[in-house]
Amino acid sequence: MRPSVCDVLIVGGGINGTGIARDLAGRGLKVILCEQDDLAAHTSSSSTKLIHGGLRYLEYGEFSLVRKALREREVLLRSAPHIMRPLRFVMPHDPAMRPAWMIRAGLFLYDHLATRELLPGSTGVDLRQHPAGRPLKRQYARGFAYSDGWVDDARLVVLNAVDAAERGATVLTRHRCIDAACVDRRWSVVLQDEAGRELPIQARALINAAGPWAAQFLQEHAHVAPSKTLRLIKGSHIVVPKLFDHDHAYIFQTTDRRIIFAIPYECDFTLIGTTDVEHHGPVGQVHVDDGEITYLCNQASRYFEKPVSPADIVWTYAGVRPLLDDERCNASAVTRDYELDLRPEPAPLLTIWGGKITTFRKLAEEAANTLCRHMGVKPVPWTSGALLPGGDLSGWIGSPISPDKDIARFEDAVARRYPDLPAMLRHRYARAYGTRIELMLRPDGLGAEIAPGLFEAELHYLHRYEWARTADDVLWRRSKLGLHLSIDDRARLARWCDVRWR
Q1: Rounded to whole angstroms, how far apart are CA atoms 466 and 39?
Q2: Residue 228 contacts by C-beta under 8 Å, 6 or more apart in sequence?
Q3: Distance CA 414, CA 437 (A)
Q4: How far apart are CA 133 and CA 114, in angstroms?
Q5: String of DSSP letters for 224-239
Q6: Residues 350, 385, 146, 113: is their CA dihedral positive or negative?
Q7: CB 177 within 8 Å of CB 190
């Protein structure tokens, strides 16, 4: 039975929408979240997969944003050690780009703008001796190392939705909001599912977390003129067979004074990105173009001894970032900060403008505080010390030490409890599901192997608890198994999903 009356209806199942749903549900409000496609189907699964302060934003004077993001890094790392991890970055020094003193000054600020307890500070690196120097051209003899974090972005979205649902929220994927109007100081909303069936909702407040569609939603469905303007900036990434064996990532300065990252990815690959290109087409139709591929290959090849070629690419993805238009000409310089826009009358409408994945929890907390105060609900923030589903490892390992050590101890505990599981499967399950592995592994075993390393038990879990409905939901968002499976394997899974889940 789907409820037709709620306190808050949230439109948008990306990181901001699910984060707000989780926060509000944890405060006892009755929440419904609708998403027109799958959770994290667009921008929120198309990031560079980093929890970071944004070192390059210092160059644009975004000190407040960087400080806010730096404060959030360790909060997030503690909240979900199974899907996040500390990551050490190496920046080879190219004197033609920026002088060494400028980089040292920037890294000093980066180390000290917020308190660090888990992450080590920056250092100089002799690339002639350091393992990170081996894949690089010999001309790069020195560099700098600093710390940030890595995250499975799509799973972060899903876990926020799971937590929201377990706290009482209703999550409706593949439900489009087709109309929203104020009637008697409430929002009268009509949702429509894939089959065209309509679901009427009455809500005390409406939150527009539609990301790149935020302005369009206001104009076409909520019948409200937008107060802000968005710059839609496409960020594209390429994935190639792994270019190095060590566990550090690279940050490369580019010839246009931007930066790109080269990050260890899915054991066998290297992720390279991102671009910053104005997007002028339909928001839902985003693709990597040839110019971006050439750009990423050329910039990476300036540093790696072995050139990166378009022929090496095994996968690409792109997303549209909804950035607040601050009238800067350079797309790379447009702020990544967010604004909350509350229209209180005749019924509360809160629109989320902008944002980045690292600050989602803080954004959600501020949005919940703002709405609660207006609705007469005492704002009691709670998420700063809360763990995401699967992230409380204490029942398996005892008292936590640090996220990276804790997840390694947890993997050892999983091996002891499930000794018959293959090692690679144990590793993937531990890093994807954390302690929720107990919900997934049924007493009757893993079930049939639908594709290599993908068993019925996992598919049933994803369908029941994580709203997976198609093969793409499983292969590219709940996991990245699509990178590891053949075309035939993926087709076989698609047929299985069509039979079982339709």
Answers
A1: 9
A2: 215, 324, 325, 339, 341, 351, 353
A3: 9
A4: 29
A5: ---SS-EEEEEEEEEE
A6: positive
A7: yes
pLDDT, tens digit, 9 for 90 and up, residues 122-146: 999 999 999 999 999 999 999 999 9
Residue 261 corresponds to which tokens in the numbers above?
A: 């990252």
d(CA 204, CA 408): 45
Convert the pLDDT of each residue in 212-236 to its tens digit: 999 999 999 999 999 888 899 999 9
Percent of residues in the chain assigned helix, strand, coil, to nearest 5 = 40, 25, 35
- The Cα–Cα gap between 9 and 31 comes to 6
Q: SS3 of 499, please?
A: helix
Distance of CA 93 to the CA centre of its chain: 29
Side-chain-side CA neighbours of 183 within 13 Å: the count stands at 10
Q: What is the C-alpha to C-alpha distance for residues 427 and 415, in angstroms, rounded to an integer?
A: 9
Query: Is the CB of residue 163 less than 8 Å from the CB of residue 33?
Result: no
- Compute, in degrees rounded to 10, the torsion defined by CA atoms 25, 31, 34, 35: -10
Residue 478: closest CA among 155, 162, 172: 155
Q: Is 0.85 topped by the overall pTM?
A: yes
Q: For the domain with range 67-150+231-330, which CATH number is right: 3.30.470.10, 2.60.120.1600, 3.20.20.190, 3.30.9.10?
A: 3.30.9.10
Cα separation, 98 vs 407, whole angstroms: 37
Rounded CA-CA distance 290/262 in Å is 19
Side-chain-facing half-sphere of 82: CA atoms under 13 Å: 26
Spatial separation of the C-alpha atoms in residues 32 and 200, rounded to whole Å: 12
Q: Are 25 and 383 in contact (CB under 8 A)?
A: no
Which runs of consecutive H residues, i.e. helices, occur in 420-501? Answer: 423-433, 437-440, 456-465, 471-472, 487-501
Domain positions in the chain: 5-43+154-229+335-385, 67-150+231-330, 394-501
Based on its alpha-carbon atoms, the radius of gyration of the chain, rounded to whole angstroms, reads: 23
Q: What are phi and psi of 489, to 5 degrees?
A: -60, -45
Domain formed by 394-501, architecture: Orthogonal Bundle (1.10)
163: phi then psi, degrees, rounded to nearest 5? -65, -40
- Top CATH class, 5-43+154-229+335-385: alpha beta
- Whether the Cβ atoms of residue 98 and residue 253 lie closer than 8 Å to each other: yes
Compute, in degrees rounded to 10, the torsion defined by CA atoms 73, 245, 239, 259: 50
Determine whether 362 is exposed, middle or buried from the number of CB atoms within 10 Å of its CB (0-12, 13-18, 19+).
buried
pLDDT tens, position by position, 408-450: 999 999 999 999 999 999 999 999 999 999 999 988 889 999 9
What would the two tokens of residue 336 be?
Answer: 């990544």
